[in-house]
Write a structure and sequence with these properties.
With 190 residues, the protein is α+β, with helices and mostly antiparallel strands. It has two domains: 49 residues; 101 residues, name from scop. The protein has six helices and four strands; from the N terminus they run αααβββαβαα. It has a four-stranded mixed sheet, sandwiched between helices. α3 packs parallel to α4. It is rod-shaped and about 125 Å long.
Length: 190
């Protein structure tokens, strides 16, 4: 409507009207482009996340790549168990006592006052390994003492070959004193 009346205006008015129309057009075009840009941004972001997700097969392949083939993992576990069982056969005969939670946990302890500052865990195990520790202890006539809380605590807190922490000294000392009393083992006074 205003464009049709432009012929009636003077040149300065035509320039002013043209500038106003261009401004309105640029503003509307800019807002339209902004809306389109926002829509495109959100679409691209959504599409990127969608492409980033893995299919079930890709997840399986990734797990297999990261953790190894399930059969290989099983073979590794079997080898570790075999090595642990062999180690038990070597270390448990050196122990003074095996502390157990009747069936689940077993911890073999040794204390030599002359060479150790604290009792040491020679072997420890749970379930099948605990059964093997008890079996080796029986074969070598190593006393087995049932102290479920102590067995669980030592199993959780102490690594094989490490000394018992001070928090467990009293309980372990009671077990060792009991064992030394029933076996008649005399320790050199230090």
């Amino acid at each position: 409507d205003t464009v049709l009346n432009a012929g009636l205006l003077e040149p300065a008015g035509i320039v002013q009207m043209s500038a106003a129309l261009l401004y309105k057009l640029a503003l509307r075009l800019g807002l339209t482009l902004l809306v389109l840009a926002l829509l495109d941004y959100w679409y691209q972001r959504w599409n990127w996340w969608r492409r980033l997700k893995m299919t079930k097969q890709e997840v399986r392949d990734e797990l297999k790549r990261m953790e190894g083939d399930p059969q290989m993992r099983q073979r590794r576990r079997q080898l570790q168990m075999r090595l642990a069982l062999q180690r038990v056969g070597i270390d448990v005969p050196k122990a003074d006592v095996v502390v157990t939670n009747p069936t689940e946990y077993a911890v073999a302890l040794k204390y030599d006052e002359a060479t150790m500052t604290a009792p040491r865990v020679m072997a420890k195990g749970k379930d099948l390994l605990a059964a093997r520790i008890r079996q080796v202890a029986q074969q070598h006539r190593i006393p087995i003492v049932q102290r479920p809380p102590l067995a669980r605590a030592l199993y959780a807190a102490v690594e094989v070959g490490k000394e018992v922490p001070p928090a467990y000294y009293r309980a372990v000392a009671e077990v060792l004193a009991y064992v030394y009393r029933i076996t008649g083992k005399l320790r050199a006074a230090g």
